Amino acid sequence: MTKTTAGHSRDEWATLAEGMHWPQRLVIDGKQTAPQDEQSFAHLAPRDGRLLANVPSGSIADLDLAISAARRAFDDGPWPAFAPRTRKELLLRWAALIEEHRDELALMVSLEMGKPIDDSWTIELRAVLATYRWYAELADKELDETSPVGPDDLALITREPVGVVGVVTPWNFPLTLAAWKIAPALAVGCTIVHKPSELSSLSALRMAELAIEAGIPPGVLNVVPGSGSVLGRHLGLHPQVDALAFTGSTLVGRAYLEYSAQSNLKRTWLELGGKSGNIILPDAPDLETAISTAAWGIFFNAGQMCTAPSRLIVHQDIADEVIAGVLARSADYRPGDPLDPATGMGPLASRARIAEVERHVLHAREDGAEVLTGGSVSAASAALPDGGAYFEPTIVAGVSADSRLAQQEVFGPVLAIVTVRDEDEAVRVANNSDYGLAAGLWTSDVSKVHRLSRRLRAGTVWVNCYEEGDLTVPFGGYKLSGNGRDKSRHALDKYTELKTTFIHL
To answer: Beta strand 394-397 with 370-373: parallel, antiparallel or unpaired?
Structure first.
């Protein structure tokens, strides 16, 4: 019987799912609060299309209450005035509760958006725990500065929390991407109003309930699910929100910049889309690893990842071998039940996304590319629950660098293969995108690594690997992939103001 790290089988996870207790209230000012208009929205499980839960839906009035609570907690409450070590201790206590409830949270993520349970438990929750613990430990280790201005003066340079931070997050890595924003903001003394995606609101509410249990003071972390076009817009326009951190589409990111301009010029940090180029050259040190990583990268999380290596840019001398290898490995990612520990790729996050992904495959065919495998919903089988949002792993060859499939983000398990003649063309193709979030490069020539990585216009360049990382390194994009950086000490820049105090002695 296949087990996950958590030690549960498919049947055991299914039993736990049947007994799941879902949050039924918003979290505002340290309390579980019913929406004022008692509204909710139905969440259908991508696993089988059945009603998962009715999600409490906040109104603008509820969001105003949350913003006011965060404002009081910042202006008059203890959180920013705490000694940094006190914030550290409370964040570590919260992390301990997250670990205690790891099975529950991982299962929530799998049921909400279809992530395979092994990925939820071993990858998503591991990242969440690491993030809260890392920033908790950093809370009392940031030092202020003095400047050598001469014997008659003293110049102090101090970091201060920016204030109330609006956090708007997507569903693809719901707890991880929220942690990348919430953890550093809380560590430096900010307060939070979180508007999660409609597809991942329940796990966000459960995280906030655990924060209350950990002793995080009232108003410090507020979570209000609801419509992005209503609540997200209101959060972006609200004059009492001092900064906003968003991960999502470039289209919505543009809107948040406009909201900032129309309101209080709140600093607005955006981590947006991507169309990452993954370059494999003939001197790749291990072609088998390059091939298997290319397949894993596009089919992990059903391709619903802003950094997904969705453009495979391969040198013509090895193109046949690479294409054959990726095609063979796609069989390892046939969609499966997300509650089965053996599943390598689960469903899309909702049935509505199926038509969206199919449209991109249709465009590829219209533009003359060849669909080698996939391109449609998964056929019914005993291994798949009925009614789910399952889509076949899809590989498209003969893709033109300027075509729609090469230029538009699919956010699904669709790999576009572009063949190039040499390394210069590979770099040109990789940079031929409005996005600049990430890139991959496979070569054994150290000089070539330095030369080509400097030319690639991307926030992260993975060399002879993909999706590797650490909390000590920043993450973010160039061009339409956004601004600012998550992770590392650099994330603190988004949530702090620098103050100069110049004293004449």
So the answer is: antiparallel
Dihedral pair phi/psi, residue 228, rounded to 5°: -65, -40
Work out the number of other CB atoms within 10 angstroms of the CB of residue 41: 14
Q: Which two tokens stand for residue 258?
A: 């406009």
The residues that bridge with 439 in the sheet, in sequence order, are: 277, 461
CA distance 452 to 296: 24
- Residue identified by tokens 């293969």 is 417
pLDDT for the residue numbered 2: 42
| Integer Cα distance of 327 and 330 in angstroms | 5
The catalytic site residues sit at 271, 306
Handedness of CA 372, 377, 382, 388 (dihedral sign): positive
188 with 142: CB under 8 angstroms?
yes
- DSSP structure string for 27-90: EETTEEE--TT--EEEEE-TTTSSEEEEEE---HHHHHHHHHHHHHHHHTSSTTTS-HHHHHHH
Q: Which residues of the chain have pLDDT under 70?
A: 1-5, 380, 382
pLDDT at 380: 64
Q: Cα–chain-centroid distance for residue 372?
A: 29
Q: Is the distance from CB of 101 to CB of 94 less than 8 angstroms?
A: no
Task: Tell me which residue has tokens 């061009």.
Answer: 479
DSSP line for 238-285: -TT--EEEEES-HHHHHHHHHHHHHTT--EEEEE-----EEEE-TT-S
175-208 tens-digit pLDDT: 999 999 999 999 999 999 999 999 999 999 999 9
Ordered strands of the 221-223 beta sheet: 31-33, 26-28, 221-223, 191-195, 164-168, 243-247, 267-271
Other beta carbons within 10 angstroms of residue 117's beta carbon come to: 28
Which parts of 267-403 fold into alpha helices (H)? 287-299, 319-329, 352-366
Amino acid 316 reads Q
C-alpha 167/C-alpha 193 separation (Å) is 6
169 is written with which tokens? 């997050």
Q: Is 307 helix (H, G, I), strand (E, B) or coil?
A: coil
Distance separating alpha carbons of residues 90 and 491, to the nearest angstrom: 20
- What per-residue confidence (pLDDT) applies to 154? 97
Q: Which 8-state DSSP code applies to residue 122?
A: I
**Pairwise CA distance, residues 70 & 29, whole Å:** 7
Give the pairing of strands 277-280 and 267-271: unpaired
